[in-house]
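Chapter review: from sequence to fold.
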Amino acid sequence: MKVLRLNTHPASVAYSMTTLGSSMMNSIFSFYYVKLFLNKYNISEGAFHKSQVVYLIWNALNDPLFGYLQDNSRISCCSQRRISILYGAPFYCLAFLLAWFPWRSYEAGDWLSGLHLVITLCAFDGLLTFVLLAQCALFAEISENHQNRLRLIKYSQVASLVGSSSVLFCGLVSDNMDNFFSFQVFCVLVALLGCACMVYTGLHSQSRFDVKVTEANSQQPPLSLAAVATMTRQILTNRDFLLFVIMNFFQVFLLAFFNNFAMIFADHLIPADVLPSLAKSLMYGAGFICPQLLVLCSQNLLHVIGYYRIILITFAVEAGGAAAMLLLGSGQYYCLAVFITVNMILVQAAFSLFNLPLADLIDSDLQKYKRSSPLSSMVFGTNALFTKPAQSLAPMLVVSILNQYGYEELKDGNVIDQSALDALRSTMFYLVCLVPLFITALQFLCWKPFSIRDSHTIDSKSL
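The token string follows.
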């Protein structure tokens, strides 16, 4: 309980309220949207892939676009972080609701379900990017002191812990989306509460560069494209930034892999008489709640050994667990349930620490090029340009593989023979083991040369 004891700190509370609101919505969206469009809206494989390709392109482009806009715009609703959150929050919450209300009763392969998915993905990700990019910039700009940033992480993880429980309660209220009306009502309530939380951030949070940015914007014209290209090149030529981006790409892929398919894999690989619906709801909820508990419990470790070593250890543990599960086999149902849950927890927990290396990279860039204010949104946006496509690649690749083994026929209610069903289940088992095994091994190799390792001990930036 000591880990959860928070002394009130207004700036951290204000910052974390956006985390609370966004985590409630993002957890539900990422966990349910693939199953919703595949199983309930009966979207065709072709339309699903086309939607993901459009999403991939938009997902990659909107981050650097909004990053440039927020770092260089002369309009306060873009240049000031809290104002961006304040104005963007209502539209973000409306975009969240788009997925859960079909535009008509969809037939199998209906073209309108494909259009529905495209608009939903692009609208939701566009507004998510606008709001959360401003919040990410706030993380780097509220304070450059490492201990203060750890406090922001701590408050944010408590908020995320509460917000991520939305998946658990949503599963219990809607019987894992079987009661669709209850599911829709729950999502509307989540959207209203999430909007209120983010508006609180918009009203009470502040960047230490807000005054400088306002003065600079009133005195200087907008940056030229040549200047933006130069700054982007400076960011991209940072070796540590490139190492982080490669590692983060794989992390985003794994996160999308487990968020989108954990429910599908568990439904087909773990029989209902072994784990009933209630137990699976608790399992899915744990996958979204426990990462925050793990990060909160790691606060002392973050002070002692730093985020670099913790992330490295996480990759080694994930790879070892995947290898062990592969050796145990698909018949060990309880071990498989624990394995899927633990992987969801570790992947999300490690990802929750990634603002720390990005903030250090922003500080390094600020000092190296002697900038008047940091390029916080541009650094976060450039990172997202290369990592966000993994959110689309994961469902596209996995759905393609599963459909080769009869998953599309099975979800459409067609009867497939036992040998085909066994092949499908075997494919799912190998995916759930081999994907994290190979990806975490690659991440370990990419992350090991990262050179910013001691910001937790030498806080020279704040001296």
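Two observations follow directly from the output. The CA atoms of residues 95 and 124 lie 5 Å apart. Confidence is low (pLDDT under 50) at residues 1-6.
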